[in-house]
Design brief:
By secondary structure, the protein is mainly beta. Among the domains are: about 200 residues, Collagenase (Catalytic Domain) (3-Layer(aba) Sandwich), CATH 3.40.390.10; about 90 residues, Immunoglobulin-like (Sandwich). Helix content is about 10%, strand content about 35%. The chain has a six-stranded mixed beta sheet, covered by helices on one side. A six-stranded antiparallel beta sheet has the order 12-17-14-27-28-25, with no helix packed on it. A six-stranded antiparallel beta sheet has the order 13-16-15-20-23-18, with no helix packed on it. The longest helix is centred in the first third of the chain and has 15 residues.
């Protein structure tokens, strides 16, 4: 029997209670294994995007390869990365018939962290060289569901199984030697609603084991499930949502031609998969195409988080007054509300001053709008990395357009976001968004690139860019997002600039900050962030 937490099983153990001749013993309801739909114990969640190290304690290469293959099924639908390591510490430690144990079981989610490091957290008791692939698929996928925190659906508070309790108790005593209390703990009892997050009832869930019709008063047993159901895929995606799983970029030209200019441009972006609640968003401009005859006025924005849902959001790229917006583009990042490692925010200079209150220049001719952001207490133990993107501009015509946004004086507790212009540029207002994350966070890198890194501002160049190598190669192709954080262009020509990345592989990517037509780009820069 599994260890108990608050009178509920801490492990999944598949000792058979009933053994139909046409089913493997493992496919029967067992200790806490059992009926009905996907649910997760709230306190057993791993942090979203967690890279879980997995190590085998024994087993042949054949068995290990099978487990690796089917375990990674979850990675297609959940923002979790199972990293199989040959030695060292690992959150998940797998054994085969450990000390003769013939059951298959797994500890739930973060409960793994409380198990002695020389002990298994997952065991397979009946695999051998003759085991069929469908059995590997069913059992491995099921047990790794437990490793992610999934419980059995017969213990979900929303379960609808009408147990024939007398029959279940009698059969459990006959097959497993359990008394009534044990059977209620392992099969009949449900978790409290406050302990779980769950989807609607799903008899086809991989977490739902076979049990016979005679165990219920309505004659409703369960089928043999060997793969993730559609509801499994949807639910686990909500519990472990992919960061920026969506395209993460939008261009006005996807909805209209560049001419005539249109001031208001928008698109509803669907989250796929949807979130349980509105995620945190970070927006940035990555493309601008505007007429030089009027001031440069552009902003990318969306509704406040309290007005958004977990299903979608409306992305707007707008201009105003007499400005002419031919085209533009934006990128965004999204983070589940519970992802506290990622703190986000934005700074609009209009919250501190009016458009005619331009800051005084310092000795170097730089004008700065600065705001200090404080992180929630205890969020970071050392200064985090901070990514900053420009998201709105209101620049006077007639003087070159020079603007940059950056993080300064970053500590573990706070940082300053500075939006700056220089020389004779007149910046009426601007806004920037930011995201902070722990330095050294596995799977996340970021940096700043600028044409000034390899050439002087003059002479100008229309094509600018270079190569970036990640500090450590990813084990698969990451996603890279970049937006403008630095701009220096001639105001005598239209402002045309586009920042983007391409040729992304697990080792790095190429970046570009380009202009076109007769526009003159003295220098341009991007702030980028990668997830993998």
């Amino acid at each position: 029997m599994g260890e108990l937490v608050d009178d509920y099983p801490k492990t999944c153990v598949t000792d058979a209670l009933i053994s139909p001749e046409d089913l493997s013993e493992s496919n029967i309801v067992g200790t806490p294994n059992g009926p009905s739909r996907l649910a997760l114990r709230k306190d057993a969640f791993w942090p979203n995007g967690k890279k879980l190290k997995v190590r085998f304690l024994n087993g042949t290469p054949f068995l290990q390869d099978k487990v690796k293959y089917y375990a990674q099924t979850w990675e297609k639908y959940a923002n979790i990365d199972f990293q199989f390591v040959p030695s060292g510490d690992a959150e998940i430690r797998i054994s085969f018939k450990w000390n003769g144990d013939g059951g298959s079981w797994s500890y739930l989610g973060t409960d793994n962290l409380h198990i002695a490091k020389d002990k298994p957290t997952m065991n397979y008791g009946w695999f051998d060289e003759n085991t069929r692939d469908e059995e590997f698929s069913r059992t491995v996928t099921h047990e790794f569901g437990h490793a992610l925190g999934c419980i059995h659906e017969h213990q979900s508070p929303a379960g609808s199984i009408r147990w024939n309790e007398a029959r279940v108790i009698a059969d459990s005593k006959k097959s497993n030697g359990w008394d009534e209390a044990q059977t209620r703990q392992q099969i009949i009892n449900k978790y409290q609603a406050a302990q779980t997050t769950n989807s609607e009832f799903d008899r086809n869930s991989i977490m739902c084991y076979f049990f016979p019709a005679e165990w219920t008063t309505d004659g409703q047993g369960t089928p043999t499930n060997r793969v993730l159901s559609d509801k499994d895929k949807e639910f686990i995606g909500k519990m472990y949502p992919f960061q920026t799983r969506n395209s993460g970029k939008f261009r006005i030209q996807e909805t209209r031609e560049w001419y005539p200019p249109v001031a208001l441009n928008s698109r509803v972006i669907q989250f796929s998969p949807a979130y349980l609640e509105a995620p945190k968003l970070v927006l940035g401009l990555n493309e601008v195409d505007m007429d030089c005859k009027a001031n440069i006025r552009i902003k990318v924005h969306t509704d406040a988080i309290e007005k958004r849902s977990g299903q979608d959001f409306k992305l707007n790229i707008d201009s105003w007054s007499d400005s002419s917006l031919y085209g533009g583009g934006a990128t965004w990042l999204e983070f589940a509300a519970s992802e506290n490692d990622f703190q986000v925010g934005e700074f609009d200079t209009l919250t501190q001053r009016t458009i005619d209150q331009v800051p005084q220049a310092d000795a170097q001719g730089v004008r700065r709008d600065v705001k200090t952001f404080t992180f929630p207490p205890g969020t970071y133990s050392q200064p985090p990395n901070v990514v900053v993107w420009l998201k709105a501009l209101d620049l006077a015509k007639g003087a070159n357009w020079r603007v940059r946004a950056l993080a300064r004086n970053v500590t573990a507790d706070k940082f300053e976001l500075s939006i700056e212009s220089w020389s004779d540029t007149r910046l009426f207002s601007a806004a920037a968004s930011w995201v902070a994350y722990p330095k050294g966070k596995e799977g996340v890198y970021s940096g700043v690139v600028n044409s000034l890194d390899y050439r002087t501002w003059y002479p100008p160049s229309q094509d600018n860019g270079g190569k970036v190598r990640f500090p450590k190669a990813y084990d698969k192709e990451p996603k890279v997002f970049a937006a403008i954080n630095y701009l220096d262009m001639d105001s005598a020509r239209n402002l045309r600039v586009k920042g983007f990345v391409d040729t992304v592989d697990n080792g790095g990517f190429a970046w570009h900050a380009n202009t076109w037509g007769d526009s003159v780009l003295y220098s341009g820069g991007l702030n980028w962030i990668s997830f993998g």
